Every structure is written in C-alpha cells, then in structure tokens.
C-alpha cells in the first residue's frame, strides 16, 4: 500500500480525497440527521448522477467540451436539486417530506435518460455508482479541496445559527435567523454529496453521511461530541475501506459502508451487554439489601 502511494498518483489522489471526504461528510451529516433530513442525501446523490451523465452526454456530442470535468455538472445539478427541495418543502408546508421523493425520482429519471444518450453504462459510470480508487483525478481532488474549504468556512461562520435550525426550527423563525442561511446549508449539503461520490459512490454516499452519526448518537451526549466522534468514525471507515479495497481489488464504496455497519452492530451489541450487566448488578445489589 505504501509503495502504491509513493508510485501512483491516483492512489495519492484517492487517499487524500478519502481523508477529506471522511471529514466533511459526517460533519455535515450531524446537522442533517438531527434535522431528520437523512433521505435528502439519497435524493441529491441521484440528482448528482443525472448531472454527471448529462455532462458525459454533452462531451459526447460536443468534443470541444472534453476539457470540462463532468463532476462540475453534477455539482450544478445537485445545487439546483437542493434548491428545488427547499422550494417544495415550503410549497407543501404540511407534507414537507414529499419534496425528497419528488426530486429523487426526477434525478433517477434524468440519470436513466442521459446515461442512455451517452452510450449507456461504462466503467466510469460503474465507478460513480459504487466508488473507485482509480477514478479520482487531480481535477477531482482540487474540487474536493475547494469544497472542504467552503464547508469549513460556512460551518465556522454560522455554527450557532445551524445549531438552532437543527434543533428548533420554530425558534429560529422567532429570533429571525435569515432564510438564506438555510438555503446556503442545503447548497453545502449538495456540494458535499458531489464531492463524496468519487470515492464512496452515488448509491452509497448517504451511508457515509448518516451512519457515522447514527453510531455516535448511541455513545455521545452532547452535539459537539457527536460531531467529533462522527468525524473520527468517518475517517476510520474511509481510510480502512480504501486500504481493504486496494488489497481486495474491489470498489471502495461497499467496503466503507460494510465497515460502518459492522461498527454500528458492535456498538449496539456492546450497549446491550452493558445494559444487561448493569441490570444484573442492580438486581444483586437489591438482593443484598433485602
């Protein structure tokens, strides 16, 4: 693995991208899960795939645009999809959750159309669906770095507002938190999903955003602790998944998600045994006192 990192550019790009994604995906995921918007990651990932396949189609019919990274089309589509979700959530005020399946369906439909127009499934599309170690280019890495900088600047600047929005939407309206912060947040989510797809894959990116948070919620008690532990778990799963995928010669996305599921299962089992032990100790203590 070390030799591969030293000798091959794509390995360095993948590992650096994975480390960055393992940081920002759970970071933004903490706010998403607390707001009960976990499915938004699935919707925007499918919209992103539609954008990338559209970019591939454009490059197919207009070779002069070959210099354009299809990932940029994916980011553009994801941002548009995020804004449409927010618009539909306000339009269906009493049924806000319906906005997510509407946009998800549109994303899947666009993906099917443009993949067909762009000569169907190929190795690049498969890599986008499930992640690929060799798919990350220098251009992708630079884009991911730019997204990481934007995400960190946004969260550091508006952490207090995001915290209030996540836990009490009604209170945020009462104290007058601007709506544009919510719009920026949803755009940031779209950018994180677009950045994560190269390593984890479109179909599995939501797992990297939500599973580290789901694991951390069973252990931590405070929101800041939740964020820190989620990021640590995200980094462990991504780096471990990339290393295992390299040696097993398989797509990293599936390995990363399986590692997260195993960590979640181990955490739940440990808590169950701990609860039983505490109940047993309490029962013994009561027996002695009687």
From TrEMBL:
<feature type="transmembrane region" description="Helical">
    <location>
        <begin position="141"/>
        <end position="159"/>
    </location>
</feature>
<protein>
    <submittedName>
        <fullName>ABC transporter permease</fullName>
    </submittedName>
</protein>
<feature type="transmembrane region" description="Helical">
    <location>
        <begin position="46"/>
        <end position="65"/>
    </location>
</feature>
<dbReference type="GO" id="GO:0043190">
    <property type="term" value="C:ATP-binding cassette (ABC) transporter complex"/>
</dbReference>
<comment type="similarity">
    <text>Belongs to the ABC-3 integral membrane protein family.</text>
</comment>
<keyword id="KW-1133">Transmembrane helix</keyword>
<keyword id="KW-0813">Transport</keyword>
<feature type="transmembrane region" description="Helical">
    <location>
        <begin position="15"/>
        <end position="34"/>
    </location>
</feature>
<keyword id="KW-0472">Membrane</keyword>
<feature type="transmembrane region" description="Helical">
    <location>
        <begin position="253"/>
        <end position="270"/>
    </location>
</feature>
<dbReference type="Pfam" id="PF00950">
    <property type="entry name" value="ABC-3"/>
</dbReference>
<dbReference type="InterPro" id="IPR001626">
    <property type="entry name" value="ABC_TroCD"/>
</dbReference>
<dbReference type="GO" id="GO:0010043">
    <property type="term" value="P:response to zinc ion"/>
</dbReference>
<feature type="transmembrane region" description="Helical">
    <location>
        <begin position="71"/>
        <end position="88"/>
    </location>
</feature>
<dbReference type="InterPro" id="IPR037294">
    <property type="entry name" value="ABC_BtuC-like"/>
</dbReference>
<feature type="transmembrane region" description="Helical">
    <location>
        <begin position="226"/>
        <end position="247"/>
    </location>
</feature>
<feature type="transmembrane region" description="Helical">
    <location>
        <begin position="100"/>
        <end position="121"/>
    </location>
</feature>
<feature type="transmembrane region" description="Helical">
    <location>
        <begin position="171"/>
        <end position="193"/>
    </location>
</feature>
<keyword id="KW-0812">Transmembrane</keyword>
<dbReference type="GO" id="GO:0055085">
    <property type="term" value="P:transmembrane transport"/>
</dbReference>
<feature type="transmembrane region" description="Helical">
    <location>
        <begin position="199"/>
        <end position="219"/>
    </location>
</feature>
């Amino acid at each position: 693995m070390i030799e591969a990192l030293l000798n091959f550019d794509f390995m360095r790009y993948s590992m650096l991208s994975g480390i960055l994604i393992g940081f920002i995906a759970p970071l933004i995921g903490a706010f998403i899960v607390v707001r009960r918007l976990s499915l938004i990651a699935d919707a925007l990932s499918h919209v992103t795939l539609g954008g990338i396949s559209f970019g591939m189609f454009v490059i197919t019919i207009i070779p002069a645009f070959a210099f354009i990274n299809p990932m940029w089309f994916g980011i553009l589509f994801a941002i548009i999809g995020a804004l449409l979700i927010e618009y539909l959530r306000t339009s269906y005020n009493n049924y806000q959750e319906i906005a997510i399946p509407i946009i998800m369906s549109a994303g899947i439909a666009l993906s099917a159309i443009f993949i067909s127009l762009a000569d169907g499934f190929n190795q690049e599309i498969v890599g986008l669906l499930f992640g690929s170690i060799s798919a990350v280019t220098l251009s992708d890495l630079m884009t991911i770095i730019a997204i990481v900088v934007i995400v960190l600047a946004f969260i550091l600047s508006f952490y207090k507002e995001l915290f209030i929005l996540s836990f009490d939407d009604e209170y945020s309206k009462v104290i007058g938190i601007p709506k544009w912060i919510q719009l920026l947040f949803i755009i940031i989510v779209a950018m994180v999903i677009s950045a994560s797809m190269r390593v984890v894959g479109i179909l599995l990116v939501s797992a990297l955003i939500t599973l580290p948070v789901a694991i951390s919620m069973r252990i931590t008690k405070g929101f800041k602790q939740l964020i820190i532990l989620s990021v640590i778990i995200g980094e462990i799963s991504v780096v471990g998944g990339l290393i295992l995928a390299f040696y097993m010669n398989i797509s990293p996305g599936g390995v990363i998600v399986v590692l997260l599921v195993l960590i979640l299962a181990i955490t739940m089992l440990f808590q169950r045994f701990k609860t039983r032990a505490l109940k047993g100790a309490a029962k013994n203590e009561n027996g002695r006192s009687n």
